[in-house]
Amino acid sequence: MEKLTGLKKTKTAVFISGKGSNLKNLINFTKIKNTPISIDLIVSNTHLAKGLKFANQFKIKKKIFNFKNPENTEKKILLLLKKEKIKFICLAGFMKILSKEFIRKFNGVIINIHPSLLPKYKGINTHNRAIKNKDKFAGCTVHYVTAKLDSGEKVLQRKVKITAEDNPASLAKKVLKQEHKLYPAAIMKIFN
Ligand code: GAR
Q1: How confident is the model at residue 33 (pLDDT cuts 50, 70, 90)?
Q2: Of 114, 127, 143, 180, which one is the catalytic site residue?
Q3: Which residues does 128 contact at the CB level (< 8 Å), separation at least 6?
């Protein structure tokens, strides 16, 4: 794995599947002074991802892959990443699982933001499960992406309190707010 430091901004791709609030937040983060990354590519597995609008708004290259044939698709994505000299991938609400071959072949670092206090609640429906289990806290985690789902080394984590009034939707909202603080902080930590 190449070390991600130096004076030049690291070319980054953000992978999304949905609203893209984390993407927008990361784009804003790249506008601040001393930010270590530039976002040069947005990848989505669906043209329905609302977050794709930020590609137009901020004039960032976007590419949609339908993943009908995942193996083939991943090969195409790897070629594109190479062409664009991408060295860092931020998964931000990307709902496809990348294969271990993809992770191995990508010549850079991949991180993900997950809406739970990992190792608790890997996978989906995290807020539902936290409430059902009567947990006192929920939260979010930024971690390195490895071949095992939601299991790579943790970079940073933030907690939120679950109150008696919370339902999965209200909790998701509270956690998302923390995600927007966590993701830039995790990137700063990686590059320092
Ligand atoms: C975020 O809560 C993110 O943590 C979650 O999807 C949401 C995307 O929101 N990711 C996962 O569940 C990945 N397993 P956004 O599109 O507004 O950034």
Answers
A1: confident
A2: 114
A3: 168
User: Helix (H, G, I), strand (E, B), or coil: what is residue 77?
Assistant: helix
pTM: 0.96
d(CA 6, CA 19): 32
Atom of ligand 1 nearest to the CA of 175: 2
Q: Which residues have CB under 8 Å from 24's CB, separation 6+?
A: 51, 54
The Å distance, Cα 77 to ligand 1 centre, comes to: 21
Check if 40 has its Cβ closer than 6 Å to any atom of ligand 1: no
Quick: pLDDT tens for 69-88. 999 999 999 999 999 999 99
Over residues 94-111, the pLDDT tens digits come to 999 999 999 999 999 999
Summary mean pLDDT of the chain: 96
Burial group, residue 142, by CB count within 10 angstroms (0-12, 13-18, 19+): buried
Residue with CA nearest ligand 1 atom 7: 93
The response to whether residue 22 sits with its C-beta less than 6 Å from ligand 1 reads: yes
DSSP state of 165: T
